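TL;DR need structure tokens for one chain.
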Amino acid sequence: MTTVSDLTTHTGYWMRMVSNAVSQEFARKVAGEGVTVAEWAFMRALYDQDDMAPSALAEKMGMTKGAISKLADRLTEKRLVGRAENERDGRAHRLFLTEDGRAKVPVLAALADATDADYFGVLTPEEHTALSQTLRALAERRGIRTIPVD
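>> reply
TL;DR here they are.
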């Protein structure tokens, strides 16, 4: 008879369990602010810029231009992101946070910080540091650069 490993023997199982719990809680919190996690990540990526070309934002976030376009459309409808013509190329445009969008980013960041503190605050500072370092090392060594948005 073949031995079949139990789900709980896999590190990925535990990572997914915790990731799902944290992600779902954060998604509920940002939904209360009228945005999705993907929209929050998009807005945060723009926050440190005056404006950005959609192609540069797609590269920064590890997403397709089509996905960026859809997010930009949704955020434009919500009046959190605006579009401006590219002065050098009339066919292109640049994306920027509106005044409302710029004001919302710190609110959403505080929700992210609170969620992080809530879930990982049960660890000792040393455990939290070790976990963060291990996850970063895995992402770097595996070449994972796509910003998680779902």
